[in-house]
User: What shape does this take?
Amino acid sequence: MPFTLATWNINSVRLREALVLRFLSDYQPDILCLQECKSPVEKIPREAFTALGYRHMVARGQKGYNGVAILSKLPIEEAGAEDHAKLGHARHIAGRLENGVTIHNFYVPAGGDKPDRLINEKFGQKLDYLSDMRDAFHSAVPQKSILVGDLNIAPREDDVWDHKKLLKIVSHTPIEVEALAQAQDAGNWVDVTRADIPDGNLYSWWSYRASDWDAADKGRRLDHVWATPDISNAAHSSRILRDVRGWTQPSDHAPVLATFDL
Assistant: This one.
């Protein structure tokens, strides 16, 4: 059963409901994983998504912050929600498809501005969150699973616009990259996007601060699609929809897609 999956930090699902509907209409992924929904679950505009065929949803939400949701044309049942680092935040939801594939949707903490947990509590929370992800994957190594989301780390040198300039910038510091690598290794996760697009600069996020984000192109690849080795070879057609970043009143993230033949 082939299906296309998309992941997108929407930066408020209610504020950008029209963009989500446009994306679903134009690209018609079978599954859309959203992060930073900034909405209680009961206020997610589900009826509009259902009208387009996305009749199934699993989600965790909270007012004004965080929030993750999986919208699906395919039947999906909730398969858990972790509160890593015990932050009390809505940052993870898992759903299981009828074919047995489990989809994990994560929104890893951004980590604030200073890459030092002694002076920046948010950076410490980010590292603790990644450590808990690592430990969870060690204790129960995932199988037949896909992990997506805004992981808020650009791990490779060509995942950022300037490797040397960003080494001390939160999202590309060596300590974060190593923490993410440990979580990835613990679950034997395969970076599907880079398996399909192994070479060249690749970004999924561009700051609102740039007067012309497209021309400046100071991007980072913060949004990821991973899969366990037992199904990673079934993935293909990965792409990042850069043009969506240029839509009216956009999120600062672009959707990332992959297709799985399972």
DSSP finds seven helices and 14 strands in the chain.
